[in-house]
Amino acid sequence: MSQIDFWYSIGSTYSYLTVMRLPEIERASGVEFKWRPFDVRHVMIEQKNIPFKDKPVKTAYMWRDIERRAESYGLDPRIPAPYPLPGLVLANQVATLGVEEGWVVNYTRATYRRWFERGEPAGEEPNISESLREIGCDPAKALAAAQSDRIENALAAATKEATELGVFGSPAFVVDGEVFWGDDRLEDALLWAKGR
Amino acid sequence: MSQIDFWYSIGSTYSYLTVMRLPEIERASGVEFKWRPFDVRHVMIEQKNIPFKDKPVKTAYMWRDIERRAESYGLDPRIPAPYPLPGLVLANQVATLGVEEGWVVNYTRATYRRWFERGEPAGEEPNISESLREIGCDPAKALAAAQSDRIENALAAATKEATELGVFGSPAFVVDGEVFWGDDRLEDALLWAKGR
Question: Which domains are present in chain B?
Answer without folding.
Answer: 4-193 (3.40.30.10)
